[in-house]
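User: I've been trying to design a sequence by hand for this structure and keep getting stuck. Would you show me what you'd pick, starting by listing the structure so we're on the same page?

Assistant: Good idea, let's start from the same input. This is the structure you sent:
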């Protein structure tokens, strides 16, 4: 059985690049580049809550980092460093090798250095803190949306929730659709390049992790504006298009969660700039609604005829009923 220190040395220690000091001391030492501030965020994944017991370790390493990078993306920050706090029921080296493979593949793809962490025995739990750099005045905050802005969405929502519905027996997907939706659920790809491209263009941004309506509602609350979503404009993947149960499709699109797309607001004068970013990044960017002067935080979803649609679940809340 390897000791805690064997594990840290074997699996988590790599030569530093940008950091002044990495794994092995009491603290890491890092410095942002001149003119930049650090954007810092933590997300935790708990077994039985965010992933099933027995989940694929490489997927988990990928996803735990991906959901954190998604927060940096939503801030317009360039990923730089991460710390990893890991609780494991036992020192399973096969699991550790796969987990770190998933983690470092994504970390390397985005130039993220693992600079520290903590390793302890306990119920399986992965908590990652990421740090990125952004010029302070260009950070994409939630509080900058203005009445009259357009509301945009990257990619599409609902696929991860559809996969989950299938796994729980509430939907039956064909093989290709299931494979696509499972990738979206288990190995989301953070929209970092989009966040960087939206610096100086978006007036606000959020990553859609808890459901589209709930998350754009957070922009509304923080910005003191109302948000209107045009349901008919919401893009659907082929898997969601093929979903025969329209009420399930609607729930997945509006409140599914685990999407890791970006919702963002932009002044209508900048529509051409957003369209150019979509081409440059080869990523669908869709105008799905608008920002209004109504009740702060209020989200109205309208159907094609302009009628307000009743929304069942708003989004995921760990302590909600
Ligand atoms: P301390 O007792 O000073 O908190 P630890 O013994 O917990 O230090 O950790 C030793 C070193 O290994 C520290 O630099 C810490 O940041 C790093 N470390 C521990 N666990 C991890 C991990 N899972 N991933 C990355 N670095 C880790
Ligand atoms: Mg420690």
């Amino acid at each position: 059985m390897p000791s805690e220190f064997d594990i840290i040395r074997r699996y988590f220690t790599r030569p530093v690049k940008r950091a002044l000091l990495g794994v092995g001391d009491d603290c890491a030492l890092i410095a942002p580049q001149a003119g930049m501030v650090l954007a810092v965020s933590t997300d935790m994944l708990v077994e039985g809550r965010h992933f099933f017991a027995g989940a694929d370790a490489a997927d988990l390493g990928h996803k735990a980092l991906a959901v954190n990078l998604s927060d940096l993306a939503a801030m317009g920050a360039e990923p730089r460093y991460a710390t990893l706090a890991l609780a494991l029921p036992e020192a399973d080296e096969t699991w550790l090798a796969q987990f770190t493979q998933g983690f470092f593949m994504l970390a390397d793809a985005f130039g993220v250095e693992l600079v520290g962490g903590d390793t302890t025995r306990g119920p399986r739990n992965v908590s990652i803190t990421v740090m990125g750099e952004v010029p302070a005045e260009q950070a994409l905050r939630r509080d900058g949306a203005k009445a009259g802005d357009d509301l945009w969405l990257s990619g599409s929502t609902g696929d991860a929730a559809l996969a989950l519905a299938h796994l729980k027996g509430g939907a039956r997907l064909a093989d290709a659709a299931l494979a696509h939706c499972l990738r979206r659920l288990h190995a989301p790809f953070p929209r970092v390049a989009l966040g960087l491209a939206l610096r100086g263009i978006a007036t606000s941004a959020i990553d859609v992790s808890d459901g589209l309506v709930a998350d754009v509602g957070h922009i509304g609350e923080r910005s003191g504006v109302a948000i209107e979503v045009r349901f008919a404009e919401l893009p659907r993947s082929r898997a969601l298009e093929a979903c025969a149960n329209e009420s399930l499709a609607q729930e997945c699109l509006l409140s599914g969660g685990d999407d890791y797309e970006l919702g963002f607001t932009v002044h209508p004068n900048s529509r051409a700039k957003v369209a150019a970013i979509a081409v440059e990044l080869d990523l669908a960017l869709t105008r799905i609604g608008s920002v209004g002067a109504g009740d702060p935080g209020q989200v109205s979803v309208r159907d094609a005829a302009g009628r307000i649609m009743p929304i069942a679940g708003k989004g995921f809340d760990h302590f909600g009923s």
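That's my pick for every position. To get oriented when you compare it with your attempt: The first strand starts at residue 37 and ends at 46. The mean pLDDT is 96.
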